[in-house]
Write a structure and sequence with these properties.
heterodimer, A: 289 residues, ABC transporter involved in vitamin B12 uptake, BtuC, two-stranded antiparallel ribbon, 11 helices, 2 strands, 78% helix, B: 218 residues, alpha/beta, 5-stranded parallel beta sheet, 4-stranded antiparallel beta sheet, 7 helices, 24% strand, binds adenosine-5'-diphosphate, binds magnesium ion
Chain lengths: 289, 218
């Protein structure tokens, strides 16, 4: 592989994984909801899309349907949390665990191959463009959405739920809606990943939450929070940077199975950075005084 | 306008309201007094639908709202809490906070949240607060002082003219200067014959200044 190919293919990986990061950004950052559904809904998207393509259905349509079933999974988590009053994190875990069985049912086995089937991806240059277009499109849609009344109400529900209630908002519905949008993105991402790697696997979602969070913090570390548009772009760039880090680490001779540990370490470091930074600054001030 | 009949409310074993009745006319300004833990805030929670009574009825203009959920009742009820942080959204701008407050009576749909017409209206309303906030529409609310945030909360609670305004020790957490500003704004609201106001206070001065109608809860 020449350098250009490496750049293109790594960036392309960043694009398709950034879709799930955008989804996670909606729940963790905007809604302040630690949603664990992600890992299940990503796999759900992948399985549904793969099965549909194997049945001769148009890959674009299959990808969109994968997003829609993802959003259904998200709204189930929302229902568990808001209507049945189950803790956010537990609601997500319950849906995620159920989806494991559901995904095997959908595929009929633990993994299915898309070898020789037409997907939305073909050769590298084209894939790169498609990935880029998908990201630009999704960022624009999200940006516009958050400028609307409904979008603003969702953001503010995440910021001060009590206030939104006093302002007459049905905050339960807002949360369910935000979770379903978030998991729509996860479903889409799963479909894209399955198509790019040529198979869907019941374990393909494991670890995606931490990967997505790492991408988000990488983006935030580089681009200080300014506006929602910058934030969204930062998420995608963070996801691309993450892929480059992984590429280099693998080249240094690390085993692919070490990646989850490495990702967790990167995420821990970046998440702790702002706090540690503050403490160090405080320490300096104390010394001065 | 507000009628409460035979209200009962217990928390576990603790009886907070037993056969409580209340009748308030439109446009009245009522001061609510009572010791700590007497149930004043609980009364506000019952009126605004944050919690529901064990039995009894609450009417607003003949409409029985006893079990109407909080978000459906909110268009009739404006509320300001003691804590200035509770009534505004810190990571959003003054304009965005006001937009949300004006949408109390309309749908939060896919129309764009902000528009020019709104902005002029907000500037005019903000200038009445006399805090120079009219030139800071794009500042995050988290940057404002406690007094400014409470003034903004008061504006947000009244911008859609609620039928009933609930003020829960809304100046207790402020310094004397901001307190005075908020009280002046409260007096303006008192003049509005459309808004019925219930105000909880512990402060003797405020009590004298506003009190014609008292309710004492024990
Ligand atoms: N959600 C609740 N759960 C249990 N007890 C409550 C709750 N809200 C209030 N109480 C109790 O009811 C009593 C009245 O509280 P409150 O209305 O806040 O008093 P105050 O008059 O000081 O505003 C207190 O004893 C309080 O502990
Ligand atoms: Mg109280």
């Amino acid at each position: 592989m020449n350098i250009l190919n490496i750049l293109l293919s790594t960036t392309f990986q960043g694009f398709i994984y950034s879709v799930v990061s955008l989804g996670v950004y909606i729940t963790f950052r905007i809604l302040n909801f630690a949603d664990m559904t992600v890992e299940g809904s990503l796999t759900l998207g992948g399985s549904v899309c793969a099965v549909m393509i194997l049945n001769g259905i148009n890959p674009i349509l299959s990808t969109i349907i994968a997003g829609l079933v993802g959003s259904l999974a998200g709204s189930i988590t929302g229902f568990l949390n808001t209507k049945l009053k189950i803790q956010a994190i537990l609601s997500g875990i319950l849906t995620m665990i159920s989806l494991y069985s559901v995904n095997i049912r959908i595929m009929g086995k633990a993994n299915i191959s898309l070898l020789g089937k037409t997907t939305i991806f073909k050769e590298l240059n084209q894939n790169f463009i498609i990935g880029l277009l998908i990201c630009v499109f999704l960022i624009l849609i999200l940006y516009l959405f958050f400028k609307t009344r409904l979008g603003l109400a969702i953001c503010m529900t995440g910021d001060n739920e009590q206030m939104m209630k006093s302002q007459g908002a049905n905050t339960d519905l807002k949360k369910i809606f935000a979770l379903s949008i978030s998991n729509f993105f996860c479903g889409i991402s799963g479909a894209l990943i399955a198509q790019s790697q040529g198979y869907a696997d019941v374990n393909m979602g494991i670890g995606t939450l931490v990967i997505a969070l790492s991408s988000i913090v990488i983006g935030e570390t580089i681009f200080r929070k300014k506006s929602i548009l910058i934030d969204l772009i930062a998420v995608v760039l963070g996801s691309i940077i993450y892929r480059f880090i992984i590429y280099f680490v693998l080249n240094l001779g690390m085993k692919p199975s070490d990646l989850k540990l490495l990702t967790a370490i990167i995420a821990t470091f970046l998440l702790a950075l702002p706090n540690i930074g503050k403490d160090i600054l405080k320490g300096f001030k104390n010394v001065k005084n | 306008m507000l009628k409460i009949e035979n209200l009962h409310k217990n928390f576990n074993e603790k009886v907070v309201f037993e056969n409580f009745n209340l009748n308030i006319c439109k446009g009245e300004f009522v001061t609510i007094l009572g010791g700590n833990g007497a149930g004043k805030s609980t009364l506000f929670n019952l009126i605004s639908g944050t919690i529901f009574p064990d039995s009894g009825n609450i009417f607003m203009y003949e409409k029985n709202v006893t079990f109407l959920p909080e978000h459906k009742r909110a268009k009739y009820v404006g509320r300001v809490f003691q804590d200035p942080l509770r009534g505004t959204s810190p990571n959003f701008t003054i304009e965005e906070n006001l937009v949300i407050a004006t949408l109390k009576n309309s749908k939060r749909n896919l129309k764009f949240a902000s528009n020019k017409q709104n902005r002029e209206h907000f500037k005019e309303k903000l200038s009445q607060l006399e805090m120079n906030l009219e030139n800071r529409l794009n500042d995050k609310v988290g940057l404002l002082s406690g007094g400014q945030r409470q003034a903004l909360t008061l504006l947000m609670a009244t911008i859609c003219e609620p039928r009933i305004l609930l003020l829960d020790e809304h100046t207790a957490a402020l310094d004397t200067k901001s307190q005075e500003k908020i009280l002046i704004l409260t007096e303006k609201i008192k003049e509005n014959p459309e808004i019925t106001t219930l105000m909880i206070t512990h402060n003797k001065e405020i009590e004298k200044r506003f009190g014609e109608n008292f309710i004492i809860i024990q």
